[in-house]
Write a structure and sequence with these properties.
The chain is about 30% helix and about 25% strand. With about 180 residues, it is of the alpha+beta class. Strand 5 (about 140-145) and strand 6 form a beta hairpin.
Length: about 180
């Protein structure tokens, strides 16, 4: 028998996921429906992801996210990039920092198609080989310390979840003897 608190908790979670999924309809005003476009095409055609689009181009990752996939992209919004410390993005976009930028962006991509309903609390391995921590709560989905603000933007090769912060991979630890 379920307790009243457990039922309330499940209901709040269901409403949170539905609210996030319904808000993804904001992307339906593109020329073709988003599920006919690749992840890269959606990013390229979404004004609130223009910084991400430029970064993907600079890192030569646009073609990767045009590939067959499936991929799950945890996409930082323009506001998320703007919140980085001054000069961080400009420094990463320099040609001599292309590898570092590519690694940072690969930290936002997981192989596989994981819409919000399939996300579970725990770790997921990203395309740069490091893991992100997923936390699914009644108030929403967190990836590390970033909140999913827009979930389930479906693409032909996966899904996009928009984040309110750029995910920063853990610092490489110095070798020990």
């Amino acid at each position: 028998m379920w307790s009243l608190n457990k039922i309330k908790s499940k209901l709040v979670m269901a409403l949170a996921v539905c609210g996030i999924a319904i808000s993804s309809t904001a992307y339906a005003d593109m020329n073709m429906s988003s599920n006919q476009m690749t992840i890269s095409q959606i990013v390229q055609n979404t004004p609130s992801m223009s910084t991400l689009a430029s970064a993907l181009d600079a890192a030569n990752l646009t073609d990767t996210l045009n590939g067959n996939g499936p991929f799950t992209l945890f996409a930082p919004s323009n506001d998320a990039f703007s919140a980085l410390p001054n000069g961080t993005l400009q420094n990463l976009m320099k040609p001599n920092n292309k590898q570092q930028l590519a690694s940072l962006l690969a930290y936002h991509v997981v192989k596989g198609n994981f819409p919000a309903a399939r996300l579970k609390s725990g770790s997921m391995t990203t395309m740069n080989g490091q893991t992100v921590q997923i936390s699914v709560t009644p108030s929403g989905v967190m990836v590390n310390n970033s909140m999913v603000t827009q979930a389930d933007i479906m693409a032909s090769n996966g899904v996009i979840h928009v984040l309110n912060a750029v995910l920063m991979p853990p610092m490489a630890r110095p070798a020990t003897n």
